[in-house]
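Please describe our next protein:
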Amino acid sequence: FMMGMGVIAMMNRLPAARLDATVREISALMRQARTLARIHMVKQTLVVDLDARLFGIEGRLSRKIPEEVRLKIDDSLNGDIDKGIYRLDFSPFGGIEGGTIMLTANQRSIFIKPDPVMGFLISRKKRD
């Protein structure tokens, strides 16, 4: 009985762990794109393919978004975007053009907001 309860608890935790891992990967790539832009003095772009569920720095290896994780972009000009290809551009001079990346799994949401000073800001929200 105890093993069964443990398995159920772990199954409920798995989507949250994948959400956290995806946020870590996206934020690491954002940090890398920002650094590459500054070092090479050339704009770098983080590409999010919402249809294929992939993300990565343009011209480099892409990573898959887990099935449990829902993703959309909150763009200040175009509103919520959940289809197509979205680009976040990192300027060699520190600027970032792009909206907030919103990731959700189960009752948890995590927002990655581009910030010209810090690179990005992460906020978490748990729904009741």
Remarks:
- The first strand starts at residue 44 and ends at 49.
- The chain is about 30% helix and 40% strand.
